[in-house]
Amino acid sequence: MTKKRILVVDNEQYIQEVAKICLETVAGWEVVTANSGIEGIAKAEIGQPDAILLDVMMPDMDGITTFEQLQANPATQAIPVILLTAKIQASDRRRYAQMGMATAIAKPFNPLELAGQIATALNWNLEQ
Prior knowledge:
Elements: E1 5-9, H1 13-27, E2 30-34, H2 37-47, E3 51-55, H3 63-72, E4 81-85, H4 90-99, E5 103-106, H5 114-122
Parallel strand pairs: 1-2, 1-3, 3-4, 4-5
Helix pairs in contact: 2-3
């Protein structure tokens, strides 16, 4: 079976690195990173990842705007998006689900649980 490819879009280098190391080590997935929504959209179009981890709070283009642009693009609209956010309440979760996001993961996240949270949200088997 082919290895899952995850795109991590976050303006914080540290978050990118932690997510990359954990997902590659724990799940054996390939991880590509982007520093902004604009870069993330371009990399999603070209690389067609299996899922996108998207930070909400970013300069220039926030995660919600990035998500809306991904949804408006036929080349990226089928890619599941999981939000990474420090601000997550029940009302936020409902709004994100209504927008079509797979789920939202709270920051700071537990690096060892991140792959499991993604796999659960997307109904993936971690043994892939």
